[in-house]
Amino acid sequence: MRQRVLHILILLLIPAVGAVAQNISDLNKRRQKAEEEIAYIDKLLQKNTSDQKTSLERLELTQKKIKSRKQNVADMDAQIHLLENDLGRKQEDVAGLQTNLDTLKKSYEKLLYQAYKNRDERLWLMFILSSNDIGLAYRRWQYFKNYSEYINEQALKIQQATDNLNAEIKTLNAKKENLAQHKKVREREVSTLQKEEKGVQKMTQDLSLREKELSKKMAEQRRAIEKINKQIEKIIADQAKKDQQKRKETPDLPAIDQALSAKFEDNRGKLPWPVRKGVITEKFGQHFHPVFKNIKLSPNNGVDISTDENSAALCVFDGVVRRIFMVPGMHNCVMVQHGEYYTLYCKLVSVSVKVGDKITTGQTVGTIFTTDNAVLHFELWKGTEKINPELWLKK
Questions:
Q1: What is the largest CA-CA distance in the chain?
Q2: Where in the chain are all domains bearing CATH 2.70.70.10?
């Protein structure tokens, strides 16, 4: 009965252990991604040394790195919690095995003591020979034989229990060491995070001393960006109008466009990034300055992605190149149509496609312009409605 209960408990514990392993595996993957992003941002920051290390882009990169590091610390805390629980269960297993071994040893000691008290073989032989009949003598002989075998079996069980206990203790010690290593890594991560936060405070102070100068520059920049946005919006509107007129004139075209649009929409949140590797340093929409909370930054109709110098801009979905144009401040721009949708790739130093080209997912559109860093400006439109690209790209 006891063995049956133990068997049931083991079966119930197996899924829980598997779930813990899965959770730890998931956290490890998230940590690895976060660490890769942190390392990549560090690489970008090493190249971005303009404006005496107080540029807005540098501040945003550092803040993004801090956000990733905070998430990393939170994941470490969750992982440590799971490891501590796992360690507690293993300690309970070891304690249970130790109790079982102690019970076996006590039982074995009693058996040996009884055997020792009756160790004289002559007494055993007399006990067998004094039997009234052959059957009783045989049963008495069988008893002594079984008793001896039982003692040997108990000795074997003790040896097996000892081996199991030693193996579990070894596993327990390995888990303790693993937990200690995770705690050390967390301490280092928290220490680095605190240093980075002090660095952001220093950048913030430096920027605060230049508030008037920067406010003037940002006002000029905002006016310039608004002018650029209007130019691009007009180009989008003109192209959408042409496409609409073309659909009216060509009866077969709407079905084709709708099919491509449906495929594009099915990939919301799954579109590949327009660069091989990068970090979004300026988000979609209107935002306030991270230091001067009363100052609005330039409105962004897309996202800006910092990447490596001389990186290629990549098409995010099958489509047709509709426009290639130049806008001051945005360099070369390529517009690709995907049914009702348009994607825009700006700040290109060179273009690898021409108007009318059918282009496939992942195909190179052009090479991104580089100053301290290469920054791709990427926009997504549905007709004349601008959409947040970050919601459509893979996480």
A1: 120
A2: 211-391
Tokens for 32?
């690895």
Q: Is the pTM of this model over 0.70?
A: no
End-to-end CA distance of the chain: 52
Q: In whole angstroms, how large is the CA radius of gyration of the chain?
A: 37
71 and 78 in contact (C-beta within 8 Å)?
no
Cβ-based burial of 41 (10 A; exposed 0-12, middle 13-18, buried ≥19): buried
Give pLDDT tens digits for 172-195: 888 888 888 888 988 988 888 888
Q: What is the CATH number of domain 211-391?
A: 2.70.70.10
Which residues, 6 or more positions from 128, have their beta carbon under 8 angstroms from its beta carbon?
137, 140, 141, 144
The helix (run of H) or strand (run of E) holding residue 331 is strand 331-338
The tokens describing 222, both together, are 């905002």
Tokens of 19: 């779930």
Please give the pLDDT value at position 54. 44
* Cβ neighbours of 52 (radius 10 Å): 9
Q: Residue 6: is its pLDDT beyond 50?
A: no
Neighbours of 380 (CB within 10 A): 26
- The model's pLDDT over 137-166, given as tens digits with 9 standing for 90+, comes to 556 556 555 556 666 777 787 788 788 888
Is residue 332 within 8 A of residue 313, CB to CB? The reply is no
The per-residue pLDDT of the chain, averaged, comes to: 79
